[in-house]
Structures are given as structure tokens and as C-alpha cells.
Amino acid sequence: MNTPLFMLRCVQLGIAISDLELLSIGMINDMFIERQNDDYEYPIIATKADIDRL
Questions:
Q1: What range does the domain containing 35 cover?
Q2: Which of 6, 10, 41, 44 would bridge with 15, disulfide CB 3.0–4.6 Å?
Q3: Any residues with CB less than 8 A from the CB of 35 and at least 6 apart, and which?
């Protein structure tokens, strides 16, 4: 990842430049990936019974 792409990801996530010293590149990447996953419709969702069987 280059600097412009990193800064674009920060802007897309709404992260201020002053907050960057508190976050690592990996944390920002994880936040961006999770944001992309928020709209995904999972075909199978585990129920409480499924969790209890684990």
C-alpha cells in the first residue's frame, strides 16, 4: 500500500490525521475491510442452537 492509497482509506473511514498516531496501518486496513463486509448478506447465519453445539 502506498501513501496516497493509505490516505484515501483514512478519508473514506472518516479518520482524522490527528488520530493516525493512535492507529496502525493494519488496524486501518482491518477497519476498511470490515466496512466493506457490513453490506454483505450472509446466506447462512448461525443460530443460538448452532453456537451451543460448538
A1: 3-53
A2: 10
A3: 12, 13
